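tl;dr need the bound structure. longer version: we got a ligand (zinc ion) that a collaborator sent over and nobodys looked at where it sits. i said id run it. heres the input, straight from their email, havent touched it
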Amino acid sequence: MQSLFEDMPELRAARVLVDGLSDMLLDYSIPQGMEAVQRGSRVELMMRNRMATGTVVDIVEPDEAWAHRLRPLKRLVDEKPVISPELMNLAEWAARYYAVPIEQMVRCMLPDAVRQEKHEEKTRKVAVLQDWPDDKTLNKINSRAPRQAAILRYLHHSELNRAPLADLGGSPALAPCRALEKRKFIRIEEESVHRDPAGTETFAATYPLKLNDEQDAALVSVLESFDSGDLKPILLQGVTGSGKTEVYLQAAAHALAAGKGVLILVPEISLTPQTMARFKGRFAQDARSVAILHSAMSDGERFDEWHAIRRGVARVAIGPRSAVFAPVNNLGLIIVDEEHDGSYKQENAPRYHGRDLAVLRGHMEKATVLLGSATPALESLHNVHLGKYRMLRLDKRADGARLPLTRVLDMRTEAKDKRHLGIMSERLRMAIDTRLDRGEQVILLLNRRGFARALQCPDCGYVASCEHCSMPMTYHLTENRLLCHMCGYRAMVPKTCPECHSSGILLEGYGTQKVEAVLRRAFPKARLQRVDADVASRKNALRDILNEFRAHRIDILLGTQMISKGLDFPGVTLVGVLNADMGMSMPDPRAAERTFQLLTQVAGRAGRGNLDGEVIIQTHVPHAPAIQFARRHDTDGFAESELALRAQFGFPPYKHMAVLTLRSESESLAEFSIQNLYKHILKALPVEVEITEPMPAAIAKAYGQFRFQCTLKADSARLIADICSREIAKLAVGEEIRISLDIDAYSFM
Ligand code: ADP
Ligand code: ZN
Ligand code: ZN
């Protein structure tokens, strides 16, 4: 029997993320003639009697009764969906993996500036000479309408015989131009103006360098993958200064020549004019072919760059982690520079990892993925061991410079020197003095992350650590206890050092400002500049300071992690690390890895020019593997030793870890709720997933909110995400409680 409904059009509805409303999804029916609507389409619709725009995040099949109550979409903005099907797949995958609603991922893919579309493309009027009058006519024009004649002459001498109206005198020039247009001497065109974040800056063209043997072998190998369509991601491990960037540039040129698009991710902080110039300069024949996406751009710039990429005008996109969603057409190559860098992990929702999504995107879009670093993440090295990634190496510096000599100063003995200045040993002070005398530059690094509260003995270097997982424990004032944030173990605070019985055991910690004061007293004549998060939060402050430093108007640069990466200062011959231990006593399984990476990267800053460099590391734990391997520039040795430890305790990359955090202004409500949530999750979790009992977070209170957390560990991140998000949804808490789940967490505070 024929169904009565056979001839009825298929009922479909679009689930739309309406612009301007925070994460509000509404369903609309898809009227006839708008069948082209699909996931990722931009649409217009009626919302409370006014027109609004939105993005389709899903196509759903409504039941009929419901379908008739839906309002229809008004218009499909663009036949081609603004988010490609490939990117929608990436959004969907990421939403599930990181346990966030898909609209959060869609938001990442469409920058506000693009979504709101109030930044229409800017256009300007341009006059173009079409016909040059003969002398007689020109004389006539000259006597009757001298302005018109002047315009004709101006165009005649202009490049390409064209000039923007603004150059011809602005709007008063419009009337004479129209008159000339009528007589077909000129024509007036609308030309779109591209707001380039690089502004009027021009980039000197650079040409491919002749590669050394190592670089050449690496490039050949990358291109083999590219040409054969072998999709195994490549890890390029190359010591600092080995010329990885040149390999990236030549690989990118190859991809462009093959008609493919290129995506380049760089750490947030290294998106300096220096990096921009290297890429813009190489592809300078057409400066617009390189689009830059970064956080300091205006909405208008972002809009233009984004559309330039989407339309394929720009075929190379460069940006920090969020650029992993750039709508590059026909993507053929993804490069992730400094792939180990912590800034690839987003620390607020959605908490995705830019490198991991880059690898996934490459796989989905059949693009070659090239990850590069001097100190690869252990996750990536593990993937090499598993055969999931292929490793290529550059073991020599390209410019022939030697790796700097690194000395480790034992602060336990240095502190016995009477001239010791607390945070600075006499030996480091003398080394700085020598450089200042020679007119050379110094970088001093103060390792400081978050609000770590570890207990350390200044006499023997002992750090209070957990008996069960050997992680440093965190001191909690309210309970007067030490807590292990990895396994939940609680311990009493020792009165004296368990190792050497010194009674001096204390909370470590030094701020940049305090160190600055010490330095100013020690080197009253030196030009000293401090760089930390406070200073860098001012717009362009970091850039300006770095330019001053490069121009040698600063002698000593004192800063936190942010000065350690990707910077190239030939005048720097001494790098001092004031407190190498600080990072290691973080409650974090990657603490040693971060310290190793930091020391290795910062050492790479010394001696880049013709002068040999020296690195001095001050520490209370001189024999810690992270410090000893960094001293020898031994990345392989460190990885081997650290991976063995991680395996032993089941830390990443052997297991996935997640942090569940609950925040509320009310401490009792927060504590009660997390206990409740914990009980539900515990009941639902299979035994192979571990969860710690709830405890106050290492940062127990921030922004007026009390924070409690549980740490989870499992072979499968999916399992954690699925179960936790289900239980969180069931809990149905009110506005006064905020819950976040950080899958593959990089911060445990
Ligand atoms: P990395 O990114 O690996 O730290 P860079 O790309 O910054 O290294 O290169 C370090 C220096 O070596 C740069 O000044 C670069 O111009 C130079 N360089 C790179 N490749 C070559 C080459 N083949 N010949 C000469 N100099 C090179
Ligand atoms: Zn001690
Ligand atoms: Zn523990």
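gonna send this back to them w/ a short note. Residues 203 and 409 are 43 Å apart (CA to CA).
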